[in-house]
Design a protein that fits this description.
Length: 115
Amino acid sequence: QLQASGGGLAQAGASLRLSCAASGRTFSDYRMGWFRQPPGKERDFVAAISGDSGIKTFISSLKGRFAISRDNAKNTVYLQIDSLKPEDTAVYYCAADSRGTWAFWGQGTLVTVSS
């Protein structure tokens, strides 16, 4: 089970840190990812991190403002978003990769960025 949190209303230029807490399985066994779905658009990949944090993957257009990290002792993955822009407004989802498929999803947390 995945529980995302940390979303809310923020002004452009501010920062937010999203969290996703996992339960029920061995967290460090799973590659974790973040996705986002802007209003009226499809859900897109944002970033992923391997179980041991050794490999991080980002969509190229977001690299530099977004950072992904995890704390396996807390069963939590984070997404740090800096210099927020109105186009970052979206529902952000965390997901767990099982055998190459994003098999488990959190419920999403809404980020709204005002200009």
